[in-house]
Design brief:
The complex is a heterodimer of chains A (431) and B (145).
Chain A: E1 7-11, H1 15-27, E2 32-37, H2 49-53, H3 69-72, E3 75-79, E4 83-87, E5 92-95, E6 100-102, E7 105-108, E8 112-114, E9 127-129, H4 133-146, E10 150-154, H5 158-169, E11 173-178, H6 190-202, E12 206-209, E13 213-219, E14 222-228, E15 233-235, E16 238-241, E17 245-247, E18 263-264, E19 276-278, E20 283-286, E21 293-294, H7 299-313, E22 326-331, E23 334-340, E24 350-357, E25 362-369, E26 372-379, H8 385-393, H9 417-425
Parallel strand pairs in A: 1-2, 1-7, 2-3, 7-19, 9-16, 10-11, 10-16, 11-12, 18-20
Antiparallel strand pairs in A: 4-5, 5-6, 8-17, 13-14, 14-15, 20-21, 22-23, 23-26, 24-25, 25-26
Chain B: E1 2-6, H1 16-24, H2 31-37, E2 47-51, E3 54-58, H3 67-71, E4 77-79, E5 86-88, H4 98-102, E6 109-110, E7 117-118, H5 130-133, E8 140-144
Antiparallel strand pairs in B: 1-8, 2-3, 4-5, 6-7
The chains are: A alpha/beta (431), B alpha+beta (145).
């Protein structure tokens, strides 16, 4: 144990922070860990807020780690305490109650902030974003108090879809508005977007693409409707803005910590300031597929980055292999998975294989570049999709088994014997 | 930790491992009852892959660097501290299928009766996983490597 007596401060209490703490404690059981988080809740599962709103889980199932998580990991947790700044020279974190917490090592895992376009009445009662436990509580209470029957969800990405699903489950009529010409345009190709849209419309959701909210109508300080850019007027009892999140950089502005879109980190998740690490939605780390660095705000990335940071903080070198977009989204009962590059902007140089069926609804697409799989989409039949994710991650040459990629029984048996044996036996195991 | 390893050279493709796994994870743990009353509801956590003369049985590898643990949004997927096995707490699981998305061997299935992740638990409570115990040609072994 190289770094057993450090003072470590962890900012944030979500996926990256938990990954960091677990990473530290795998190798360092004695250093002091102080966690400071603005949100007052015990570490909860952020993606579950839509399940909570939709009534699929209750508060008891929201915890991401057991109730004794901080105790077992010997973490001094300050929940509900906002960190307001970082004094990089003195190596101290400043908090809203005027205190200072000194550190040898620091993790910044404070995530992203939801984007609300600047427009009139954006602060009106009934306008929400949807990224926190508190958002879920407030929306739930608002729906109950105002007996909301119709809602407008702005943004046809992941959060927009999950919001739509939750509201739909509560019996609310949803108008989903997306500026791009199709929903899920960042993760899906046109066909997958079309199938998802049909699934929503079949279930009574109204989907409007190629337009956005131009004006929020208010009556007595409360949302009463919207006017869209295309001129359509819609009445509604509430609006959820789900346009996206951007890294929360407020705390590091004006410090020596370098930022671009997010906080720039190296392969150890260390920022430009030695001993200060960043992970999760706030970080701008290596992109495994396109090269370079960019924020990829998805759950598995946040955990992995947090863990890598934690390991390095503990003095156990570990490298972040690079992130790639991937998502598993249930579209009103239709399971979907997307991984990597699914619709290259410039298709030249890419090879696409696909097959689909209408009944039952199913779609599979594999994207290859130079005989290596770089992306895939699965709709309906998502079983064993992870094999493809593994092939993308491990950059396996698929030329030997390309003609099998779309077969129903594609499995490890379809792969070259050596790769298969390696997968089955595990790394480092001699066969 | 002890893991199950497969020898494709010895696998006959008889699928007795699948049947034994399914029965072990049924409510009754009796083959006839499982067949008559729980057919279609309970899943085998082991899957025989077959192509021509080659076959082998595959289940969760209980990876050291387990992607499913990192991708699980609820914390349902966890590592048993005593055995090292990767297990799913089905009361916590919400069936988001992030684990299905990341499992590199495709060993996690979607539950039939309940929409939760279904996977190998190394037959917790048994000395030897039933797939290993009942393999007629020793194509499955349970050992530390």
């Amino acid at each position: 144990m190289k770094n057993a007596n450090q003072k470590i401060v962890v900012l944030g209490n979500s996926t990256a922070a938990v990954g960091c703490i677990e990473g530290i404690r795998e190798n360092d059981g004695t250093s002091q860990i102080v966690l400071i988080a603005k949100e007052p809740e015990h570490a909860y599962s952020r993606p579950l807020i839509s399940y909570l709103l939709g009534g699929e889980v209750d508060d008891s199932r929201m915890t991401y780690r057991p109730a004794d998580f901080y105790k077992r990991n010997r973490v001094e947790a300050h929940l509900g305490l906002e960190a307001t700044g970082i004094d990089v020279e003195k190596r101290e974190v400043l908090t809203a109650d005027g205190k200072r917490y000194s550190f040898d090592k620091l993790l910044i895992g404070i995530g992203g902030l939801p984007i609300v376009p600047p427009m009139k009445n954006a602060n009106a009662t009934g306008v929400f974003t949807f990224t926190t436990y508190q958002d879920a509580r407030e929306i739930k209470a608002y729906i109950k108090a105002r007996k909301v029957e119709t809602a407008v969800v702005v943004g046809g990405g992941l959060i927009g879809l999950k919001s739509t699903e939750a509201l739909h489950k509560l019996g609310i009529k949803v108008h989903l508005v997306e500026l791009a010409d199709r929903i899920l345009s960042i993760t899906f190709d046109e066909e997958a977007s079309r199938i998802s849209r049909e699934q929503l419309e079949k279930n009574g959701v109204s989907v409007r693409c190629g337009t956005t909210v131009d004006e929020i109508k208010v009556s007595g300080g409360v949302v009463s409707g919207v006017k869209l850019k295309d001129g359509t007027a819609l009445e509604c009892g509430m609006i959820i803005f789900a346009i996206g999140v951007r890294p929360n950089l407020k705390m590091v502005e004006g410090t020596a910590i370098q930022t671009n879109k997010g906080i720039i980190v190296d392969e150890h998740m260390e920022t430009s300031v030695k001993g200060i690490y960043a992970a999760g939605d706030v970080a701008e780390a290596a992109d495994a597929l396109y090269g370079g660095k960019r924020p990829i705000p998805i759950f598995p990335n946040a955990y992995r980055q947090g863990k890598v940071a934690g390991k390095n903080i503990a003095g156990e070198p570990m490298v972040f292999e690079g992130g790639m977009p991937m998502n598993s989204v249930d579209v009103l009962g239709l399971p979907t998975i997307s991984v990597g590059i699914t619709a290259p902007q410039d298709p030249a140089g890419y090879e696409m294989l696909s097959k689909k069926s209408d009944n039952p609804v199913s779609y599979r697409k594999i994207v290859l570049k130079d005989n290596r799989i770089v992306g895939a989409i699965f709709i309906g039949d998502i079983d064993r999709a992870g094999i493809f994710t593994g092939l993308v991650r491990n950059r396996v040459d698929a030329s030997q088994f390309k003609d099998l990629l779309l077969t129903d029984d594609f499995g490890l048996i379809s792969l070259p014997r050596e790769y298969r044996k390696h997968m089955v036996s595990g790394e480092g195991v001699v066969i | 930790m002890k893991r199950i390893y497969a020898y494709e050279e010895f696998c006959l493709g008889c699928r007795l491992c699948e049947i034994n796994c399914l029965v072990q994870h049924s409510r009754s743990k009796k083959i006839l009852k499982a067949f008559k009353e729980e057919r279609g509801k309970v899943l085998s956590a082991i899957h025989v892959e077959e192509s021509g003369y080659v076959s082998f049985a595959l289940q969760c590898r209980h990876c050291t660097d387990a992607k499913c643990l990192e991708a699980c949004i609820t914390g349902a997927m966890h590592r048993d501290e005593k055995t090292g096995a990767v297990l799913c707490d089905q009361d916590k699981c919400v069936g988001c299928w992030m684990c299905v998305m990341v499992c590199p061997v495709g060993a996690i299935r979607r539950g039939k009766e309940k929409s939760v992740a279904s996977k190998c638990d190394l037959c917790a409570g048994e000395d030897l996983p039933v797939c290993v115990a009942n393999c007629p040609n020793e194509a499955l072994v349970y050992e530390e490597r």
